[in-house]
Amino acid sequence: MAIRGVRNGTREAHSVSSVWRVAEVVDGFPENATARTIRLRVDGLAGHLAGQHIDIRLTAEDGYTAVRSYSVASADTDGHLEITVDELHEGEVSPYLVRDLEVGDKLEIRGPVGGWFVWQPGNMNRVQLIGGGSGVVPLMSMIRAHQASGNEAPFRLLYSLKSPESSLYRDELRRLGRESAKLMIDYVYTRSTPEGWPAGPARLTSEALLGKIFPPEENPDVFVCGQTVFVETVADWLVTAGYSSESIKTERFGGTGGTR
């Protein structure tokens, strides 16, 4: 079934997040072979928090609608929103957003929404981010917001992904890893590794996880995002290792992929 975004219509300037508004696509660029970042301009946007998401509604010519949620990837610095969409095999919405959506097209959106899985610049606690695959998207919003804010609290990212080619934000993370004294980045590759990597690919284990994150005695705020089994498994490992359950915030999306 062919589903298309809104091509015409009046933009809604209401600031309430539950109201559907029209966003214009102002840019789009690939992150890897199956993922694309989309930059949106939304009239009346009242800003967003790092870690929030938006809903996108596409409507087919016969009136059928499909709604999907996508995490915001950008920091709240210039009045625009960026999302990064990973194409799902046989998906209804993601193939259109990744392959067909063009600059100048319009989308119906609702949000940004969410007030729990968020990081705010006034928080001076050290922060541990743990992302599996495209679960890195809301964590990237936090990293960007942290970098832009001048907040000096230490940040650390553990990014678990299949291969170097499947990475999102590869160049930006590489640059930040070299240049930022506030951010430490660790990787786990489960299928293939970069040339010269000191270890072979392996699925994430509790031992590997605990060796690449802030220890529990440093009391970090922990944000975990990824597929459901990944998130549940990592959260269980953290609690068993002595991290306070109150310090762990999780965000999960569909699918049954584990810690691979």
UniProtKB/TrEMBL annotation:
<dbReference type="InterPro" id="IPR017927">
    <property type="entry name" value="FAD-bd_FR_type"/>
</dbReference>
<dbReference type="GO" id="GO:0051537">
    <property type="term" value="F:2 iron, 2 sulfur cluster binding"/>
</dbReference>
<dbReference type="GO" id="GO:0016491">
    <property type="term" value="F:oxidoreductase activity"/>
</dbReference>
<dbReference type="InterPro" id="IPR001433">
    <property type="entry name" value="OxRdtase_FAD/NAD-bd"/>
</dbReference>
<dbReference type="InterPro" id="IPR017938">
    <property type="entry name" value="Riboflavin_synthase-like_b-brl"/>
</dbReference>
<feature type="domain" description="FAD-binding FR-type">
    <location>
        <begin position="18"/>
        <end position="119"/>
    </location>
</feature>
<protein>
    <submittedName>
        <fullName>Oxidoreductase</fullName>
    </submittedName>
</protein>
<dbReference type="Pfam" id="PF00175">
    <property type="entry name" value="NAD_binding_1"/>
</dbReference>
<keyword id="KW-0408">Iron</keyword>
<dbReference type="InterPro" id="IPR001709">
    <property type="entry name" value="Flavoprot_Pyr_Nucl_cyt_Rdtase"/>
</dbReference>
<dbReference type="Pfam" id="PF00970">
    <property type="entry name" value="FAD_binding_6"/>
</dbReference>
<keyword id="KW-0001">2Fe-2S</keyword>
<keyword id="KW-0411">Iron-sulfur</keyword>
<dbReference type="InterPro" id="IPR050415">
    <property type="entry name" value="MRET"/>
</dbReference>
<keyword id="KW-0479">Metal-binding</keyword>
<dbReference type="InterPro" id="IPR008333">
    <property type="entry name" value="Cbr1-like_FAD-bd_dom"/>
</dbReference>
<dbReference type="InterPro" id="IPR039261">
    <property type="entry name" value="FNR_nucleotide-bd"/>
</dbReference>
